[in-house]
Structures are given as C-alpha cells and as structure tokens.
Write the structure tokens for this entry.
Amino acid sequence: MFKILEKKAAAHNVWKYVIAAPDVANKAQPGQFVVLRLHERGERIPISISDWDGDTGTITLIVQAVGHTTRQLAEMNAGDHILDLLGPLGKPAIIEPVGTVACVAGGVGTAIIYPEARRHQEVGNRVLTLVGARSLDHLFYLEELSAISERVMVATDDGSYGHKGFVTDLLRQLVNDGIHLDLVIAVGPIPMMQAVSELTKRHGIKTIVSLNPIMVDGTGMCGACRVRVGDEIRFCCIDGPEFDAHQVDFSSLLRRSHLYERSTDGCKSTGKVEEGCGGQCHK
Ligand code: NAD
Ligand code: FES
C-alpha cells in the first residue's frame, strides 16, 4: 500500500499527489513512469513520474482526471492509500550536454517536461521552455520551469495568458528568429507532438517525443503499447517511452489512441467502462 501524503489542485481538473514510495523515489530518473492500481478490482494505469525525493522517499504524480480510474483517483485524498504502484518503469531519458535544448510541453505534458528540463539545465545545457495550454487555468509548473530555464514562453489557445495560439507557434517563432536548437523535446497530445516533429524535421533538428499510449501490464508482455518507430514495432513501456520523433508513425499512434477513447465510453465486448483495456477486445 502506498500512502497519499499530499494532494492539491495543480490546474483545472489536474491534481498533484505526493506519495510515499521510497523504492521508486530512490531509483526514479527523468522520463520514467509508474503503473498503479487503486484497488483490487481496479485496472492498471501508467502515470509519468513528475518529481521525486530520495531523502523523503516520496514521488510526485500530476494526474488529469479524464478516465474512469483517474477520476476515481481525483476523489482520493491525503491519508488514502493506493493498492499497487510499480516502478520506476521505462527507459530513462538520455540527457547529456548538447548545447541549446527547447523543451516543448502541451497541457499535462508539462508534468513530464519539468524533470527533463531540470536535468538538462543540471548538465549545462541552455534550456528554452515552451508551454502550451488551453487557457490560463490549465497552466502549471511555470515558476518551477522559470527557475531552471533561460526563457519560458507560454501560449494559450484562448489567449488568456501569453501568445494566443498553439505552443507550436512559439517553436516556429524561435526557429524563424534564427535561434540555433541542438535538441527539441516534445511532450503532450499526439497532434502536438506530430506538429513539432514535422516542423523540426524540415529544419533538421533532432527531436525526442515522450509517448503515452495505452498500457496494460507495463512490462512488455501484452503488446498494448506498441508503436511503429521506423521499420520496427516497439513497445513504449520497455523500449520507450521516448523515441526519435522523426521515426514515429504518428498516424497509427493516433488511431490506436481513438480506440482507447471508445473503450472509456464502454467496452464493446463487455459493456463495462474499461480504461486501459487497450481496445484489445475491439479488434
Ligand atoms: P490539450 O488538448 O489541452 O493541448 C495542450 C496544448 O497542446 C494546446 O494548448 C496546444 O498548445 C498544443 N496542441 C494541441 N493540439 C495541437 C495541434 N494539433 N497542433 C499544435 N499544438 C497543439 O492537452 P491536455 O488535455 O492537457 O493533454 C492531454 C494529452 O497529453 C493526452 O492526449 C495525453 O495522452 C497526453 N499526455 C502525454 C504524456 C506523455 O508522456 N507523452 C503525458 C501526459 C499526457
Ligand atoms: Fe503491455 Fe507495454 S503495456 S507491452
């Protein structure tokens, strides 16, 4: 059992949890995730690790309440316990001195960008952070990102804060201004990562995306998280979640994510709401 020590609102419909998980906290690295199960009849869902503290034995998870289990989690509070929490899973992000790095975050993807941006700054890279969200009340971690970034640029879809438009507008602006980028990291909705990838491919800028597909076991056994990368089928849970953006087949990734959306409306086979069934039973 894993105790929730702290819960607070991070943004609109997004919750920040500090959870006692010493074994995970001691090993976690940027880019990794946990798979959790709230109770014995619960499904298993992957959540990226947004922060950790080996000294206190705690991890921080930022969770958007969008599906069956994440909504159940949103009803839990400090003092409650999560039944299982497996991790850290996935390959850590490869972070080394490269020069100038643009960290591009869309919505909840900001939670994953933060530890990566911080590590880039620690290894001596110049960090430019670009954040996009629907509106001002969907933004979070801006102070934290400002502390480790040379510059933070913000876009909101409705113009309630920063540039009015998508976060990709900000990236295009950087490139058009002639700012040399050695690496771009993008985390967020699939269409956003695809748009970033198309832009940087045209300009020959190495780009990494952190994918967040359906996962079931999280250990490479079920195949739910498969994604085509170049000529190969890779499993996000053990081969990723980070991949070379210019090799990712975003179209098939998007199609599979829509299967997931249908499954949260109710599985076609069982009639139950089964977030994380991976659409396996719909085929
Ligand atoms: P959202 O739909 O609110 O979009 C966030 C921002 O992304 C927008 O404000 C915009 O700036 C940008 N964006 C969206 N669509 C775009 C497009 N077509 N072109 C260019 N930019 C675009 O996002 P949200 O609801 O906060 O995030 C949820 C999504 O993030 C989910 O799809 C989830 O799977 C994904 N996510 C991914 C990870 C990961 O590890 N890769 C982690 C958490 C969440
Ligand atoms: Fe089952 Fe990755 S979640 S193989």
Observations:
- The CA atoms of residues 266 and 273 lie 4 Å apart.
